[in-house]
Inverse folding.
C-alpha cells in the first residue's frame, strides 16, 4: 500500500499494520516489524530488480536470540563508497554492536549462529567486542570509524571471499567452520 514518507502518521500506521499482521494481533510486548518497498529509479538493465525491499525488526529485548535486524536488497555491483554510506547511516541511526552486509547464503556458508557477528563484504564491529586483527592478511581492510571497526573483505556484496570471511571469524575468536 503506498505511503507518504513525509507524513509521520502515515508511516506509523504502516508500521503498526505490518506489526499487527506479523503478530496476528495488537502488539503485547516490545518490538516492531517494518516492511517497506520502493520502486527502482532510473534506467535499469532488464535483469535488475524493479523494486527494492526493506525489512526491519527493532525494539525486541530480553529474547533468547537477537531478533533485531535490518534486511534490504543490494545489487552485487554496488560500489564500495555506496555500501559504506549505507552501513555508516545504519550504524549512526541504530547504534548496533555489529552489522554485516551479507547474503543469506554467505551467512549460512560461514556457519554464523546468533548472537555471533555475521561477516559479509563489509562488516561493522563496535569497540569492546573481542577482535584480533593480527590474524588477518593484508587483503582484509580494517578501518576505525563510528565507534568501532569496519572490516572489508575482497569480493562483491553478493559474492564476498569466504576464505577471508573465515579469517575475520578467527579474528572474532569463533571456532573454525
Amino acid at each position: 500500500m503506498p505511503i507518504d514518507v513525509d507524513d509521520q502518521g502515515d508511516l506509523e500506521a504502516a508500521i503498526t499494520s505490518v506489526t499487527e499482521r506479523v503478530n496476528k494481533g495488537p502488539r503485547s510486548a516490545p518490538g516492531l516489524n517494518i516492511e517497506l518497498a520502493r520502486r527502482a529509479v532510473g534506467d535499469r538493465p532488464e535483469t535488475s530488480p524493479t523494486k527494492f525491499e526493506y525489512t526491519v525488526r527493532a525494539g525486541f529485548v530480553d529474547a533468547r536470540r537477537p531478533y533485531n535486524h535490518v534486511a534490504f536488497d543490494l545489487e552485487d555491483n554496488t560500489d564500495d563508497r555506496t555500501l559504506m554510506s549505507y552501513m555508516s547511516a545504519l550504524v549512526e541511526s541504530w547504534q548496533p554492536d555489529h552489522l554485516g552486509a551479507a547474503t543469506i547464503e554467505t551467512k549460512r556458508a560461514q556457519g554464523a549462529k546468533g548472537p555471533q557477528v555475521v561477516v559479509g563484504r563489509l562488516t561493522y564491529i563496535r569497540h569492546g567486542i573481542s577482535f584480533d586483527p593480527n590474524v588477518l592478511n593484508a587483503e582484509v581492510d580494517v578501518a576505525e570509524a563510528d565507534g568501532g571497526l569496519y572490516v572489508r573483505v575482497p569480493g562483491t556484496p553478493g559474492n564476498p571471499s569466504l576464505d577471508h570471511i573465515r579469517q575475520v571469524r578467527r579474528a572474532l575468536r569463533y571456532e573454525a567452520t
Q: What stands out?
A: The chain has four helices and seven strands.
